Amino acid sequence: MSSIVTHCILGLCIRLALIAYGEVHDSLSVVQYTDIDYRVFTDAARHIVSGSSPYDRHTYRYTPLLAAVLTPNLFLHPAWGKLLFSVVDICVALLIRCLVVAKGSSPHLTTWCVMAWVYNPLAIVIATRGNADSISAMLVLVTLLLLEKQYFFLAGMMHGLAIHVRLYPVAFSLAMYLSVHKHTPTSPIKRAARSTCGSAVNELLSDLLPTWNHVKLVLSCVVTFASLTSVCYAAYGYPFLYESLLYHLVRQDIRHNFSVYFYLQYLGSDAPVGLAQRILTFVPQLILLLSLSWSYGCRRDLPFCLMSQAIVMVTYNPVLTSQYFVWFLSLVPPCLPWLSLSCHQVVALSTLWLAAQLAWLLPAYWLEFRGQDTFVYVWLQGIALFCANVAVLTRFIRAYKPLESDKLK
Question: Does the pTM of the predicted model rise above 0.70?
Fold first, then answer.
């Protein structure tokens, strides 16, 4: 444990150094280190302090709780929020430690899992630039840990809070529900023995049949989410409901983003989004999410299930920016002890994924900062990143060996 504390302290020092660097960089360079969203957060906090609505700030599309938490940006220091996100980042590392220990990992592998997050360059940069997604990552990991400890009422409350803060954890709900009384998945042999559709349906209905623990999980989640939403709606009305929840269901970004659907949105920006386009962008993702819930929705495999679902959501999202990578990067370390990958394979997968991102950045830079027509190149690199994400997920699924936990000792 002492080595983990040392790594966490060093990781926090690295983040503090980058926050300080960012302050200097922003004062000297046109290309800012601080993310534009952080300035949006600060402006929204300023509206709250002045007694108006945070949604008076154009493009603020988050819960008002985030703006309220960042009000010290105005009277303590402008970098308060970055410091908060960095501390939360370290809390994520400690939660990873708790989760892998609860799953039976050895001390040596536990340390490596923590280091995989503490020294993750993307996680460091995203937090120190002022993105708030580390908060969502922390809430998801807390929910996972509470489910592992079988504190179902508290897990439901935390899941409801996570959905309120950021909508994407709602996709984990079915897998969490199934994990309440399913400790391990149905074996492939038994599944193959079921030759009739009726048997599969009966098994599904049996898994969905609620117990008291299911009721505690679902009820506490719904009440928490509904209560927070009602309070915020009472305070800020429909603008809150649309900007923080409904907007994310129809969001498009026609300037540039990593999404494979980017160019489709750009070409159709002058026309309303049709039913065919909505089906194209939503149904494949839904099918994969349901399939993963059915395949890995059990207590033993829940971290891996959520990680796989997060990769699917990020890969198939109509809008994809860098901070979305935190959704699944924070769930990879809890799964590492059960991923049968050699060092060479880890390096190869990491190189493939990072190369696909870096190749996207050049045409995106020329598009945004030089005004060059590189839309097609941005889209092509988005396709390359899509393929890289699919390749990584496929390799993870093949490498996942939960039954070999005895090798961890």
Answer: yes
| The total number of residues written for the chain in this structure | 409
139: Cα separation from own chain's centroid:
10
Question: In whole angstroms, what is the distance from residue 313 CA to residue 25 CA?
Answer: 33
Cα–Cα distance, 409 to 402 (Å, whole number):
13
pLDDT (mean) for 196-214 = 72
User: Dihedrals φ, ψ of 130, to 5°?
Assistant: 105, 20
Name the nearest CA neighbour of 323 among 314, 312, 332, 335: 314
* Structure tokens, 314: 């990020």
Q: Are 125 and 107 in contact (CB under 8 A)?
A: no
Q: How far apart are the first and last CA of the chain?
A: 17
> Which phi and psi angles does 215 have, rounded to 5°?
-60, -45
Q: What is the distance between the alpha carbons of residues 241 and 61, in angstroms, rounded to a whole number?
A: 10
Q: Please, how many CA atoms are within 13 Å of residue 251, restricted to the half-sphere of its CB?
A: 20
Q: Which two tokens stand for residue 117?
A: 């997050």
Q: How does pLDDT run across 41-92, given as a tens digit for each residue?
A: 999 999 999 999 999 998 899 999 999 999 999 999 999 999 999 999 999 9
Q: Which residues are within 8 A (CB) of 192 and not within 5 positions of it... i.e. 6 or more apart?
A: none
Token pair recorded at residue 30: 């046109």
Phi, psi (rounded to 5 degrees) for 339? -105, 115
Query: What would the DSSP string read from start to end of 67-133?
Result: HHHTTHHHHT-TTHHHHHHHHHHHHHHHHHHHHHHHTT--HHHHHHHHHHHHT-HHHHHHHHTT--H
pLDDT at 224: 97
